[in-house]
Amino acid sequence: MTATTKGPAARTAASGPILELDDLGVVFTTETGEVPAVKGVCLQVRPGETLALVGESGSGKSTIALAAMGLLAANARATGSAVIAGTQIVGAPESGLAALRGKTVSMVFQEPATALDPLTRIGKQIAEVIRNHREVSAKDAAAEAVELLRRVGIPEPGKRARAYPFQLSGGQRQRVVIAMAIANEPGLLIADEPTTALDVTVQAEILDLLRRLAAETGTGVLLVTHNMGVVADFADRVAVMYRGEIVETGPVEDVLLRPAHDYTRRLLAAVPRLSVAAVADGTGRPPATARARTGGPAAGPSTPPPGSGAPGDRTPDRPAGGSAAGSAAGPVANRVAEPVVKLRDVSVVFGRGKAAVRALGGVSFRVEPAQTLGLVGESGSGKSTAARVALGLIPPTSGTVSLFGADLARTRARARRALRAGIGVVLQDPVASLDARMTVGECVAEPLRIHRRDLSAKDRQAKVAAVLDRVRLPREVARRAPRELSGGQRQRVSLARALVLEPRLLVADEPTSALDVSVQEAVLEVITELQGDLGFACLFVSHDLAVVQHFAQRVVVMRAGRIEEQGPTGTTLLHPETDYTRRLLAAVPVPDPVVQRGRRAERLATLAAGRTEAQA
Amino acid sequence: MSAVIQPDTVPAKAAASREASGARLAVRRFLRNRLAVVGLAVVVLFFLFCFAGPLVYSTDQTHTMLQQVNLAPSGSHWLGTDAVGHDELGRLMYGGKVSLVVGLAAGVLATVIGTLWGAAAGYAGGWIDAVMMRIVDAGIAIPALFILLVVSAITTPGLAGLVLILGLVSWLVPSRLVRAETLTLKNRDYVLTLRAIGGTHARAILRHILPNSVSTVIVAATFQVADAILLVAYVSYLGMGVRPPQTDWGGMLSAGLTAAYSGYWWLILPPGLAIILVVWAFNAIGDGLRDAFDVRGRG
Asked: How high is the ipTM of this complex?
């Protein structure tokens, strides 16, 4: 594989790469033996160039970033060569590396909350980085720190320099981390998932900032990410990793639009793509999806092109069991069927007195039978709180919640418990969702033990086996422990548990956001198919607009505890009515460098226009 | 780190062998802690000594034999005799039974009470939690030894009574540990899911929270047993514990010390060493179990 990856990049090395990896390997020594994490990796980053290292979890991409910094864990051993600006990193003594780090090469980590010292003012932290490598007076370093904060776009940098990290938002903290990283004008910046912990609108700003800084100073950037949209937005070249090896390298347009390797093709096909309204759209034509442009495989059953019907009065894309299917997305008044869940003017306040926080305010929505309602919004928008109110886990401070037509506040505990037999739940974390002390079979059987105590052990096992078949897991997994399964398999076990009582409502709170895209696709496919068979309604909470667009018939956009807008997915997410939704959509990077470039220009133009308008 | 680099799909065979190796890893981690292994050996030997020993080395521990008091170790009495003529080695076995059984029972009782109390407080939360934990704080503020002495001054507890009292004064620390564990476990997704689909609180606590805090509980229990053995010794040493003709190591130590100035070392050293060894051994086992379960590492 060395020959293929070295390819053209190695031959044009004359320009003097800032980072050069040659046959780099990393082996971890664990209790169970030696585990190779990275094998024979060769790549280069030239000054002013951004190379994206992409791959799914466990592919070894972060390990490469750490190896290049000489920051591998104590149980890891690097072989081969990693050269930064002429200095060999592999096997170098710690003292030599310390002089290099922060000066010639610096790093931006994923989690800004833990990358900063919580007890030191941010100005001081930046000044410390400066004074570690240069003979500068404390006063000059402080002034420089303020200037850096200005460069990374922190408002009122002089004042903000005296703030502690906890006084800043996540996006601002990441800006501070970046300010520290560029303080000594390094030749190479290694960014390990720099925007993964951030909301899309903040992600777009951070990517703009990184792009501007790299262009201004001619810094080479090694960007580690799993997000193809970020790659399309930011990278010049791409290296695709699979199981510790690089399977494909090339310019971003080649790799994302004309992938050569089979794995890259599969990876790209699994990425849910946000359909965007074409300029000429609005005539009722199906919008051009990015997927069609790339020539990737045609949309699978899980991803029907949204808006394929007429926008206003569209029917669900899938055949849904039950009588209510036909008008699931249509007006409610003409249906006899009761909504499965109805929230009316719900507010939730946590704490009281001065410490009170309004988590939800005046939230109303309903989920119709056999319909999927997507609940979207950025972190802190209250979407998970709303789902938990619907589940009855959080009592509303005011307003009413009714489940299957019964007001939750007025039903007695016993009746409420019986109502809940009609709910299935899938939550985000595949590890925390299943009790590690139970077998998979016991986990799936738990709802039966609660609501169907009359069942014999044999009947229970039969039901568990049947539902495992439905989620396409082999029956043998019933005897295994959850920890033996992969993340995607665990989420399917959660789904099996949710569906074993054949519920009328499935509440899924970010069910796939901890999964890799290829696994996500498989899980969503199973949910879609079962919804067709069983006809349950679904309340689907997600921060990923592309997933919701493919998955839900109606969507509720939330912001700061309130509903910004709601409507049929095809209308609301293609022709949003509010500025917020428009900004949210514009910030989602699509995994097509050509389209994304256009979207970026458009977004920046809109922002600039908004700013001048505000000033006028 | 190793978890991160596992390939995503797990073939059935590999997974099965990994499960087996999960338990084996825990055993290996325990065995790697040399002191814990020695501790385990010490405890096993002491149990054998106290319960199987009298079968081999039988002595009369009920009748006083005033013609042979305070004899030095010899061929017929390996560890000599005490002030009323009981064979000292036999007495060490006889008293050890009481020390070990009372210590073990009291340690387990304390752990059970503490676990239930802590789980209930942590799960309920709010003012119930506040009240329950203030009771624990108040209990910790009063020295256990003080309560023990007051109680044994008022009544003369039998063995069962002693276990009960010891258990009732030493459940406070485990209750705090389990409460802390419960606070994190009750917000796990599987507990939330259970509540959302209508599971009862009892089921959440008994089926999910307690089984998942079992490693914390077991580690706490071993330390509790060590503490309880020490407490029994204290109380008996002060003459308030087990009544003659029964005895335990603390009581033997106390009896031996009255003859300290006569140079009868065989009355003092054996019970003293036995107490130290067993208490140390239980602590070492607790340490090893903590490694094996990786209690802190798992958070």
From this structure: 0.72
